[in-house]
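Hello forum,

I keep getting stuck at the same step: I have a sequence, I want structure tokens, and every attempt I make locally crashes halfway through. Rather than fight my setup again tonight, could one of you with a working pipeline run this one for me? It's a single chain of 626 residues.
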Amino acid sequence: MTRQGAPAPSLPPNHIGGTSDLLRAAAHAIMKSLMRLRPSLLLPCLLALCFAVPVFGADNPVIFPLSDVHTGMKGVAYTIFTGDQVEKMDVTVLGVLKNAMGPKQDVILVELAGADVAKTGVVAGMSGSPVYFDGKLAGAISLKIGTFTKDAIAGVTPIQNMLDVQKAMAAPSGNSNGTPAASPVGLPSEAFPEKVALGGGKFLVPIETPLVFSGVMPQTLALFGSQLQAFGMSTMAGGTTAARPDDAQLKPGDMVGMELVSGDLALNAGCSVTAIIGNEVFVCGHPLFGFGSVALPMTRGHVVTTLASSLESTKIMNSGGPIGTITEDRATAVVGRLGASPKTLPVEVNVTTPTERRHFHFNVVQNPKLTPLLVALSAFNGIVSNTAYTEGTTLELNGQIDLAGHPPVQLRDMYPPTDASVPDGYQLAIAVASSFARIYTNPYEQPKIEKVTLNVTSRPDNRWAAIDGAWSNKSEAQPGETIRIKVLLRPYRGSPFIQEVPLTIPAQAARGNLQILVSDASSLDRMRELFPGAGGERLQSLDELIRVINRERQNDHLYVTLLQNSPTLLVEDKELPNVPASAVNVLDQHRVPGGAQMLFQSVIGEHSVGMSQVITGQQYLSITIK
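Reply #2:
Ran it on my machine without issues. Output:
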């Protein structure tokens, strides 16, 4: 080992506590000398050398304890600025910040020096770069101070804190996808860790993780970039490269990628390798998302170059071949396991315009907090990637979500352009994400989603019409008689027109006054209260939730509904109209909490007409049954 303050090896050990450059050079010199010996003496010397030279393993890292770190100590750190060449940076300890990132979460504050780091400062993607004192691993560069700082000052996560993740890995855990959560679209910033104030408006924050994208349209990045940045990511153009045979041969300072989306769109987060212990790779020195146990594909990262910027220097990275699975995303480290990669979710997007049809394929990671957002991002990117796509058209969606062991979830609706300052395809993408999240984060079971298929057709013009009035050709009718409901519709920038809808009075209709509701799909669904509160108290299984979703009305239909003033019970996913008082007493939700809901109107007749345009609004009429 080198003495404290002495020059350190120019390259990191191949293994933690492994062989330094000096030992490798010495071994090389010995082998050259041995080759000059007579063959009869070569074998005895090799055997003697095997017993004389210690074998360094990857499973027993030599650690520099935090208690021995003091101000002024000199050391080295390793990272990549360009290509796959790991480079050395000089490190000077400025001090140790006790409990800086939380209880017992100390930080070593250091100043970095070297030709490259003098130009770039602390770089996005440097997270995880290993720091050594006396040739022993002390921790990982993981934090920076504020923005526009002139000095390359970084925070180092002590290696003991990073290795604490192994304790969490050893403990039994639930589903690797984490706890179901609501759709993350529009997550508030307060959902993420607080910055740690150092005074003077400066903050100690995790170094940004480069989110390398390729195949992403500018509109997509503009809409979804802020949501990705809320996770502590720095979006940066990059690409992918073909897998190499040596992709999994990592050393400290190398880059790895964490793949979120692949295929016709690629999104990869990147961090530096701190340590390799057995087949486990410790990276970042801070959380990626803080999700705990996860299952994200791990890839090899190749640095193209490092962009120096006064605002935020960052590594531009290509993502290489798959090398394993990111299994832990904890407060002090991200941990991956070399080997097989986890299964991802196929998303197919087919976009048809009057002049062109294009097909896009994506593979999305499976995680309750990420997948709905990434499905929305992929869907939107597929729509706007079509060269024939234009704003001001109405988008028609006809798709489905395929699940193992359950019926598919149907996705059908139309989305006309709006005056809002977002692209027209955004509302379709968010609607898909919302439907997907209802299935993916259901409270009944972890769904095994096999595929998401989205068929999007672009229809010319702005296709929507508002209900401007309604009337019946009769004010009185008898059971079994068909009446004609006429609806005045006012289309967008078009001439009003009348749509006639026939409605047959059921034979069992009670005498007296009945209501007729002329409406769009959403008004009818709200009135019927088909969907209970967020907890889904009325439903008991995923199959029931799917049936309820598939019963949702389509927004391009005009609905005419006949209502009678008699109770309807909603039991699980079933509607029981005209329930007798005795059944109400048994099943009323006040007597069986969560078991039923009671409505005070029953649907005794319903008819709809497809309009090839989105219908909005509602009108009530009355009719007397004789």
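The chain has eleven helices and 34 strands. If your local run keeps crashing, start a new thread with the error log.
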